[in-house]
Structure formats: structure tokens, C-alpha cells
Amino acid sequence: MPHFEIAIVDSNILAALGLQPLLTDLIPVAEVHIFVSFDELKAADKGQFVHYFVASRLYFEHAAYFREKPRRAIVLVNGDLQIAGVPTLNVCQTEKALVKSILSVHRQGHPNGTPQHHMASSPSKMVGLSAREVEVAILLAKGYINKEIADQLNISLTTVITHRKNIMEKLHARSLADIILYVVMNGLIDVGEL
Length: 194
Prior knowledge:
Blueprint: E1 4-9, H1 13-26, E2 30-35, H2 38-44, E3 49-55, H3 56-61, H4 63-67, E4 73-77, E5 88-90, H5 95-109, H6 131-141, H7 146-153, H8 157-171, H9 176-185
């Protein structure tokens, strides 16, 4: 059962639907709601949302509303737009980079730890990988390709592919982003190493 709620406020429903599973994976104890307009959000907002991932246009149109909630609004931007005192998330980047950015934004919003909620792998993902699978997962998260991993670990390409397949199955991973989440959330590497 979710411990808290997150709002995505974006009229681009495809972007919102893409962000929703990433947030659900990153913060499995959260219920993520999508609102396609500010009016929908305002009608539903009773102060229960821990974070608002809000499209830049909607943020600027209703800045006073979101500024009343310091560190809770995260503005979704196209590119490297920065807003003084407000965390931003560039939605025009690779999945790996987006995951890294979400983790960084989270860390900035909760510099001394996360009160009452945490970003972690879901219980189904807290599985034991073999030592070699952990090595492969870390190298995958760092962006190495299969051939580079084989060379670095002095194993065959076929063995790397087998380990990668086993990692995906054990973690119930849908993509490389899930592997990145696993290694970061389990302290195997720091976000800065990605």
C-alpha cells in the first residue's frame, strides 16, 4: 500500500505516461497520479502530494501556487533550462540519463536523507545476484557494452550475455534503467559514477 502520493502535471499525456513508471520504479511506496491540467490538480490537491512533477508552461502560469510548496515542485523542461531555487528535470534525454537526473533531483530535494519515504528497489527487486552478476550489472550501469564488459572481466561475450539475461530475469527488469536503479539503490555505485 502506498505511503504517499506524487503528482505529474503535464498536458502531454505521452510524456506523463512515460514518467509514471520510472517514478513508480524509483519510489515503489508512492502512488503516482497524472493530471493533464492545473485545474485537475488543484481540485484533487488536499496537501497530500510530496512532489509535483510539473510541465514548465504550467509551472510558470501558476508559479505562485507551486512556490508555496518549496522543494516539492520539480519542473519538467526540454533541455538544460534552470530556474533559480527550483529543481528541474530535463525530459529530453536518454532513459539512463533521465534516471540519473531523477536520482540527483531527489538527492538535492532531500540532502540529509529522505523523511518518511525513500527511493529504493521494490521488495521484488531485492534479490541476490551472484558476485559476477553484480560486476556485470555495475558495468552495464556505467554504460559499458557487452564486448567491453567481456574484455574488462576477462570472460567470453556469450558469458556476458548470459549474465545480462540472468540479471534481467532476477530483477524483473524491463530495461537498462531498472539495472541502474538496482545498483544505485543498493549502494553498489554512486550516482556520480554513472
